[in-house]
């Protein structure tokens, strides 16, 4: 089967997490918006000639569910933090969400990609491409502008996150091996 990764989509309400998930899984766009509570999906894909199984958690964006975010984060291997380019408020939440990821994971950085969704809605845009780039640079996290409607950068963002996750696993294995070697030294 290959590797398995738990990917969690986080972000404010109405940013298009479910639309991104459905476009990635089924290649379909859902025009009717029905607030998500929590849904898990699976997809097998091949990235760089290696098969992997993705467990994808599409989370709720409502404020009342933020206490559940810690549980989502604890179980996640990597994160797609989504905001809508048509909403300054959802853009402002990205840093808070990423800080929560780092706090829960107790790390200085963690495999995450920021997505500025709804790039097709140019006339309603409130957040510029440069603001998204600046935010990603500030957090040293990759960034994609996406459009679930146009299937723009959807697969690319998942694939990029998987590449980061693989690199992290390799680094973690090397670190573990070095620690074991140090423990086995006899003086």
From TrEMBL:
Keywords: GTP-binding, Nucleotide-binding. PROSITE patterns: RAB, RAS, RHO. The keyword Coiled coil does not apply. PANTHER family: RAS, DI-RAS, AND RHEB FAMILY MEMBERS OF SMALL GTPASE SUPERFAMILY. This is Ras-like protein.
């Amino acid at each position: 089967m290959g590797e398995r990764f738990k990917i969690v989509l986080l972000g404010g309400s109405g940013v298009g997490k479910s639309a991104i998930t459905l476009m990635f899984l089924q290649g379909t766009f859902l025009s009717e918006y029905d607030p998500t509570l929590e849904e898990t999906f699976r997809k097998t894909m091949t990235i760089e000639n290696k098969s992997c199984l993705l467990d994808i958690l599409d989370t709720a964006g409502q404020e009342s569910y933020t206490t559940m975010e810690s549980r989502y984060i604890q179980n996640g291997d990597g994160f797609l933090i989504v905001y809508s380019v048509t909403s300054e408020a959802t853009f402002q939440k990205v840093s808070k969400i990423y800080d929560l990821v780092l706090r829960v994971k107790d790390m200085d950085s963690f495999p995450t990609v920021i997505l500025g969704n709804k790039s097709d809605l140019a006339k309603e845009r409130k957040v510029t491409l440069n603001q998204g780039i600046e935010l990603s640079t500030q957090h040293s996290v990759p960034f994609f502008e996406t459009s679930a409607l146009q299937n723009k950068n959807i697969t690319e963002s998942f694939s990029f996150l998987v590449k980061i996750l693989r690199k992290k696993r390799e680094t973690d294995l090397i670190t573990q091996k070095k620690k074991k070697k140090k423990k086995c030294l006899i003086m």
